[in-house]
Structure formats: C-alpha cells, structure tokens
Structure to design on (97 residues):
C-alpha cells in the first residue's frame, strides 16, 4: 500500500517531503509544466499541462523534486478545484499545520 500524500503549503516543502499535495492558482503554463502559487510561494509542476487553464485553482498530487534551487513537483494527478475558495482553503491549511 502506498503512503498517502501530505497536504502542505509550498513554503514548507523540503527536499525530503516525499509524496505531497499542494493547491494553488495557475500563473504560467509551459510545455509539460505549469507554475502554481498558493500565496506562500510558487512551485513548478511537471506533467501534462494540456488540460490546465491559466488562472484556475488546482490541486496537485505528486513527488517533490528540488532542482536548480527551485521547488518542483512531479505530478501524478492534477485536480481542478473550481468551487473552492482559494483564500479560505489556504487559511484552513495554515490552521492545520
């Protein structure tokens, strides 16, 4: 059985965080990657970005990678969160950490 992903703020990601879940607003889309911002920091999400829409709020489940001094997450699943209030969601995550 696989370990569950730990929901975390981007600013709290370490190179040993392992399997994580992060949520944020899509601020940039490239070929096979996008960048999300959760208000605490930004992370580059590696994976299929063909269904990702600029400005939307998404959750990413994946594995952390620390490359070239930046935070990268190798996405296993990207989930659209159209009905979630990003500010309220961030506040709840801050209270739980």
């Amino acid at each position: 059985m696989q370990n569950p992903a730990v929901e975390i703020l981007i600013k709290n990601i370490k190179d040993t965080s392992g399997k994580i879940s992060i949520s944020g607003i899509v601020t940039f889309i490239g070929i096979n990657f996008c960048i999300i911002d959760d208000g605490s920091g930004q992370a580059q999400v590696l994976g299929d970005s063909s269904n990702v829409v600029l400005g939307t709020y998404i959750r990413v489940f994946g594995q952390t990678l620390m490359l070239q001094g930046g935070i990268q997450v190798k996405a296993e699943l990207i989930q659209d969160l159209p009905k979630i209030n990003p500010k309220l969601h961030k506040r709840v995550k801050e209270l739980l950490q």
